[in-house]
Description:
Layout: E1 6-17, E2 20-27, E3 38-45, E4 48-55, H1 60-66, E5 68-74, H2 80-87, E6 93-100, E7 112-118, H3 123-127, H4 129-137, E8 141-148, H5 157-164, E9 170-176, E10 188-190, H6 193-199, E11 207-213, H7 215-228, E12 235-239
Bound molecules: flavin-adenine dinucleotide.
Flavin-adenine dinucleotide binds next to strand 4, strand 5 and helix 2.
Amino acid sequence: MARPVFNLELIESTCIASTTLGLVFRVDTPPEFEAGQFISLLFTHKGENLKRSYSIASSPEKLRDEGLLDIAIGLVPNGAASECFANAKVGETFQMTGPFGVLTLPKELPDRLILIATGTGVAPYRSMLPQLNALAKQGKAIHILMGARQRADLFYQNEFQRLAQTSADVHFETCLSRENMVQPEAGEHQGYVQTRLAELNPTPGQDLVYLCGNPGMIDDNVKYLTELGFGPRQIKREKYTFSK
Length: 244
Ligand SMILES: Cc1cc2nc3c(=O)[nH]c(=O)nc-3n(C[C@H](O)[C@H](O)[C@H](O)COP(=O)(O)OP(=O)(O)OC[C@H]3O[C@@H](n4cnc5c(N)ncnc54)[C@H](O)[C@@H]3O)c2cc1C
């Protein structure tokens, strides 16, 4: 059976970081989705019909109540979707299929939730913010690590910092691999998320770890966590692989 296709209208396009676009679409007859899922965007580039996957960066409530859906696109040189959406004008229409994916929060959580992202991999965690806020109020420990090259590459960080302010057990930290840091700011680390994860002393049976974004980062962390004794159910991942 053919997948349902939904019509989208671009209503906002903003540069949210050095090479990242924040797009907001109005969706007609919006489907339900769970925070953490992704969509497939259909578009035409140089006469070719193409599709690319993007994590939904806004909450299910925003789509249900306002018909609006956010995504964050990290622009890559000569990328088809990158060029198409960088040049797209407000009012242009596209199509999508989905939602897809299982990077969603379970009903029962262990002691600590560790959410790790590189770049736009932070988008599904932004979609989870209403759920994370509710978990923070219940006293759950949540640790969010966002990896980027430099401060200029960060986005959505204010929203995660606000979440962290609601509870002493919620932390948002950034790991910057190429920032020349004379004076790290609060919650900032020099280096990769892998290094910071090890410092958090991840423990099988106590932690549930989410990994989203760069495939190399995910492979490194899965290898490390597996060596520590984490099983497949204690690690959830979404790799942002390129289309062939
Ligand atoms: C499940 C899933 C969810 C995803 N969610 C997101 C998301 O929320 N935000 C997002 O920005 N992307 C996301 N991606 C990646 C996205 O689907 C595209 O691959 C990406 O936007 C590049 O598409 P493009 O058409 O611009 O480049 P393409 O035309 O596919 O590639 C052009 C060239 O750029 C290289 N390239 C492609 N991507 C990268 C990259 N990231 N870094 C360096 N070089 C690259 C390719 O090797 C190729 O040489 C996701 C992928 C998957 C599988």
